[in-house]
Amino acid sequence: MLPDSNSSLSAEVSEFLLNCFVRSPRWQLWLSLPLSFLFLLAMGANATLLITIWLEVSLHEPMYYLLSVLSLLDMVLCLTVIPKVLAIFWFDLRSISFSACFLQMFIMNSFLPMESCTFLAMAYDRYVAICKPLHYPSIITDRFVAKAIVFILIRNTFITAPIPILSARLHYCGKNIIENCICANLSVSKLSCDKAALNKIYQLIMAWTVLGSDLILIILSYIFILRAVLRLKAKGAAGKALSTCGSHFILILFFSTILLVFVLTHMAKKKVSPDIPVLLNVLHHVIPAALNPIVYGVRTRRLNRGFGNY
């Protein structure tokens, strides 16, 4: 007879097994090489960016502080997902403890919205810089950045915390093989003997509400920016204004495009290999992280000078 108490959860299922491309073993070998490269690139590039901003006094400005926050979030997401995936590929270490699985779920579900919210803060920074340049020094201050960081942490932590909590409170009574490379909420909750409808509905509402509202506000910011740029009559002013937003816009494209492709592929999962959504989910945690600091470094002269000094 199965015990009823919640305290028996860890006794019944003390660990999960991650079925990471077990149906396509060749994928593991071929993916491990580019994934390792992207992971090292992400960690090295973001670490270099953080050190440069910290040491270069001329970069101690709100825009670069927000970029530092984005780099920190990228590094945490990479460290949460990629080392475990590579351990599965290289050493077949598919097991993950009950607590570690839900910790990974919490970090993934909270840090991705934190990135989205950081992009929103960066979009507002560019909006004020282009549309209200005379008021920029008084609006975008160190105090503004501190408040933005606190808001990013509190909003996304409290909104996303119920996802792993609801999933961890489910009753797992035998099945422990996760058909994924990571402890995604839906992949884990489907193993439960309980109904996980509330868990699924909450994640769906949260994702569309948080990420959707951020994306809408970012788009609105760029609409106002584009309108202001088109009104600039000074020679070269429009190009200079757009160039200051170019790096940020490219970063948003990296983040949103991969996420959109993953969502569409997941919706059409009956028409594609089940490994494709899993692959996109893994890549979404490493490709933007690897490319973000490179794009900003290449397109921003002041960062280029900072890299050259160190």
From TrEMBL:
The keyword Ligase is annotated on this UniProt entry: no
Cellular localization per UniProt: Membrane
Transmembrane segment boundaries: 35-57, 64-90, 96-123, 144-166, 205-229, 241-264, 276-298
Membrane topology designation: Multi-pass membrane protein
Top-level division of the source organism's lineage: Eukaryota
Any one Gene Ontology molecular-function term assigned to this protein's record: olfactory receptor activity
InterPro entries in UniProt: GPCR_Rhodpsn, GPCR_Rhodpsn_7TM, Olfact_rcpt, OR51/52/56-like
Predominant location: membrane
Claim: Nuclease is one of the keywords in the record: no
Alphabetically ordered keywords of this record: G-protein coupled receptor, Membrane, Olfaction, Receptor, Sensory transduction, Transducer, Transmembrane, Transmembrane helix
Gene Ontology annotations of biological process type: cellular response to lipid
PANTHER family: OLFACTORY RECEPTOR 56B1-RELATED (PTHR26450), OLFACTORY RECEPTOR FAMILY 56 SUBFAMILY A MEMBER 9 (PTHR26450:SF414)
Protein name: G-protein coupled receptors family 1 profile domain-containing protein
